[in-house]
Amino acid sequence: MTKSEALFERAVKRIPGGVNSPVRAYGAIGEAPRFIDRADGCHIYDVDGNCYIDYIDSWGPMILGHNFPEIRESVVKACEKGLSFGCATEIEVEMAEFICENIPHIHMIRMVNSGTEAVMSAVRAARGFTGKNKIIKFAGCYHGHSDAMLVSAGSGVMTSGVPDSAGVPKGCTEDTMTAVYNDLQSVRLLMEQAQGQVAAVIVEPVGANMGVVAPKEGFLEGLRHLCDEYQALLIFDEVITGFRLAFGGAAEYFKVKPDLVTYGKIIGAGMPVGAYGGKKEIMEMVSPVGKVYQAGTLSGNPIAMAAGLTQLKYLRSHPEVYVRLEEKGDTLYTGMKDILKEKGLRYQLNHIASLGSLFFTEQEVTDYTSAKTSDTEAFAAYFKAMLKMGIHLAPSQFEAMFLSNAHTDDVIEETLEAVKKYF
Ligand SMILES: *Cc1c(COP(=O)(O)O)cnc(C)c1O
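That is the input. Now the predicted structure with pyridoxal-5'-phosphate docked in place:
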């Protein structure tokens, strides 16, 4: 038995499923998950001493690679002053100023502790600001695990959400409508049916939780127009895309202005941080200025802020990181495409910048329904073989590959060799 297997045996007795977040359990794979001991750059090491090239990157935060020296040092330095005060600190002001000064559509921002919290709070602010209750989300987009966002994704448009989880009362999802990603007509239909009662449309500007699905040309602009036409707010959930596609996230990349933005992942550089921000008049609805209540004992925690701000400042002062990430993405993903073509396989490879997904389907993947045509057993076999060859992919067909700036050309080449060997 490996150390990972032994740990998993102990873990399942005391932690539901042995893990503190479901996808880590390798449920779709049918093996014990690897327990990780440490990571450095683009490599991750498990407790049995195996080394892998890591394409999970903690699900995105490690855009500069694991254990980045400047970030680690900023955390150690902050720790020396104490872990938390529950009082206002200078670094929170610096963080807020830095983001607002560098991202034009964000005038005010509030720190929270996760992406889930950011979305939950942004939706509440949108409802408080507009005085309306309905929310439109898209099938296949993930916005964390707050009650209102946990609606089951059917194959079509749904005017009233059905809970996708036990423990979520129907009342909590009744005001969540579900549209089809990349289908503006489905949004217009829901806007009409809601008769002016839509507070906000929330979207992952690049879908990255059904595998990677980029917006079709005009989709995000179309959402902007529809929101203006029906006086609803547009919320970009940039928990993955923020500071990844560009410093200003998908909004900058696609030049579409949302009213509110949610962040997570990269903003904390591996510490538990989320944030939501946007137009001043909306953010001024939030307590203690306004009547939308939202709070957090550890929000804006000084250690987390030190890590996050160091990463953001590094990204801002090294714009070449984004150029390199595009290049690396191109090399890896077009390389994979070429291999598939060479082998006569018609599996779909979607990618944009540093994000990519190999779907085990021959259908073009543009939304949740087409993503679902993937052969998940074929994915599991591929995942296991890649892991054996030292490549650490997300253990699910419906998660993205995350490239970091620490992935070198050699490492990408090594990955392509493994892909070639497998197919
Ligand atoms: C990860 C994710 C979330 C949830 O963030 P947590 O920090 O896991 O709560 C929300 N939205 C998107 C787009 C995400 O990828």
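The CA atoms of residues 139 and 153 lie 5 Å apart.
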